[in-house]
Design brief:
The protein is mainly α. The two termini are about 30 Å apart.
Length: about 230
């Protein structure tokens, strides 16, 4: 398969995400502007950070009067899951040049990770992953710009209600994989249960981090057990 076809395969796989990212980015931009950020700051955050959940969290903390250090620490904790996701993505790209992997690594998102690691039809190629990036990064920033323009037309209650779009999109991406893999269903259910339990004792951010790490650790053993049985 040529590089062009690999790129187009990634772009095609990312089209559903492309459509879903725009309203989410609009919701983020509206929330950010209503929280007191300028349009320039709002767009710059999308260009540099490119992480919907973290940007939403940072905007909410900014609106609550949190300082820069608190926001950086909270978003760092929230993004610890990217260590796991990046490891899985780079494992698929282990035969690719180092510079290519370094260049692609900042663009690993929940959705790109889910598509690239669960869709066997996608070639394990940096060009395919680059296609996924185009299908996510471009609409995210275009949606942010659009949200800045319409921010004065929508009341805060509407932007708050749009916040559910990001987790809903990720759930939609996970459902096909869960249907095909009982192992994945077990890991997802276990992680959700751990998060529910831990959130009763520690803060929500720490509960997400801890449950993700514990769920990933359990997934390693579940994978090994499944492979041994299959062998």
């Amino acid at each position: 398969m040529t590089r062009r076809k690999e790129f187009l395969s990634g772009l095609k796989a990312g089209l559903p995400v492309c459509i879903g990212f725009i309203p989410i980015a609009v919701a983020y931009a509206v929330s950010a502007v209503h929280s007191g950020l300028t349009a320039g700051q709002t767009v710059t955050m999308s260009l540099i950070v490119f992480a919907g959940a973290s940007q939403m969290a940072a905007v909410n903390m900014f609106a609550a009067g949190a300082g820069a250090a608190e926001m950086v620490l909270a978003t760092f904790i929230l993004n610890l899951r990217h260590f796991i996701m990046s490891t899985c993505v780079m494992k698929r790209l282990e035969k690719s040049p180092l510079l290519a992997r370094l260049g692609l690594s900042p663009f690993v998102t929940d959705e790109a990770f889910a598509l690239f690691t669960s869709d066997d039809s996608l070639p394990a190629s940096p060009w395919a992953f680059l296609g996924l990036i185009f299908a996510t990064y471009l609409p995210w920033n275009l949606g942010t710009i659009l949200g800045c323009f319409v921010s004065q037309l929508l009341p805060p209650i509407v932007s708050d209600s749009l916040g559910i779009a990001l987790p809903a999109l990720f759930i939609a991406l996970m459902v096909p994989g869960v249907k095909k893999s009982g192992r994945l269903l077990i890991v997802v259910a276990l992680t959700a249960a751990l998060n529910t339990i831990l959130s009763q004792f520690i803060s929500g951010s720490w509960a997400v981090v801890a449950s993700t790490l514990l769920g990933a650790l359990a997934g390693v053993f579940i994978t090994e057990e499944t492979e041994e049985v299959a062998a």
